[in-house]
Amino acid sequence: MRKKGMTPEMTQKSIADALIRLLAEKEYSEITVAEIADTAGINRSTYYRNFSSKEDVVRCYYGCIMQKCLAEFETSGTKTNHMYLLTMFRAFHFHREGLALCDRARLTPLMLDALNAHILPNGIGGRGSDVFPTAYYIGGICNFLAIWISRGMGEAPEEIVRICETLLPDSSQRRLSEAFRSVHGRPIHFIARGE
User: Fold this and answer.
1) What is the mean pLDDT of the chain?
2) Do residues 163 and 85 make contact, with C-beta atoms less than 8 angstroms apart?
3) Whether pLDDT at 166 is above 70
4) In this predicted model, what pLDDT tens digit does every residue of 55-103 receive, in sequence order?
5) SS3 letters for the chain?
6) CB burial class (10 A; 0-12, 13-18, 19+) of residue 22?
7) How far apart are CA 70 and CA 80, in angstroms?
């Protein structure tokens, strides 16, 4: 049955979810575009209107998790770096089964693209010196996530945030706040350790 009346975002999420379902059944290299389209309930032309490769679908999957994170953060009452990190790690933890499938298929490196797209103000090609420290920070968060995913996400999101905050210097936490303001038009509040 073909799906009608879906927004582009809904279609892309449906395609990404279909790929994740297929990853539970077979190897990534064996999954065809036709199978993804059929599982998503769309035709191949709709697939190609939205994506040019399976890797783009995986990037979309990670991006959907980041969108969920940002939506939940926006509705939280507390706008701090701690809450931002906690919301992000909770959103990824919620999707741990799909993330484990992506990790098994060695697709976790594509997660960096989604983090860059959602946190860096003007993408990795942005101008100015602010892009370097923010990119450095994003790389650290991406590696935290990658290691956590590869280890089965056994630690609670709260524990991962605690570890992250003990390792990140206060200046990096300030940069996260500045990057969030650049992207989303409003600041999150920096709270130094011990406050």
Assistant:
1) 85
2) no
3) yes
4) 999 999 999 999 898 888 888 887 788 888 899 999 999 999 999 999 9
5) CCCCCCCHHHHHHHHHHHHHHHHCCCCHHHCCHHHHHHHHCCCHHHHHHHCCCHHHHHHHHHHHHHHHHHHHHHHCCCCEHHHHHHHHHHHHHHCHHHHHHHHHCCCHHHHHHHHHHHHCCCCCCCCCCCHHHHHHHHHHHHHHHHHHHHCCCCCCHHHHHHHHHHHCCHHHHHHHHHHHHHHHCCCCECCCCCC
6) buried
7) 13
